[in-house]
Amino acid sequence: MAIRRRRRVAALAAFVAIVATGFALVLPVADRAVKEVTLPLRHEDIIRQQARDKQLDPALIAAVIYAESHFRDQTSHAGARGLMQITPQTADEIARRSGGTQFVQGDLATPQVNIAYGSWYLRWLLRRYEDVTLAVAAYNAGTGNVDRWIARDPDIGARDIPFPETRAYVRKVLDARREYRREYARELGL
Length: 190
Fold this sequence. Notes:
mainly alpha
């Protein structure tokens, strides 16, 4: 009787060990799957390259892509295209200012071009406003709106942004930036 009991206990222990090992193997896969849905990252090689070339935080580029498109190539109802949701007018202006003489609107569907143009624009906004919050707000609401807000309140902060959508967008980008730094430091070269 004692032998049968020891065998059952040993069998149960072996079963628990097998199940625990299975969970240990499944958890990293499940963790990656959850991250892919909640905080996706693609094109990290392009993001790292553009961050280096334009002296930007790669986590900020990833966060803008996340807020704009969740890393899905799409066209918005306003005609903004690609991962960083660049409007045709903004893309033409970036091409003119950056020397993109061969640029055509269809290029915005190419991750390399879209991220390069979006990063160029982000760098330009950061130079213009010298403030991440205002640069991100301008990426969403446009420079005309941000210029008007600054004219009314030179010390405007994230909480003072008059457009609720832009206020939420800025919060989303800055929160995502923190998460990308934490979750994808190695992939983004941080």
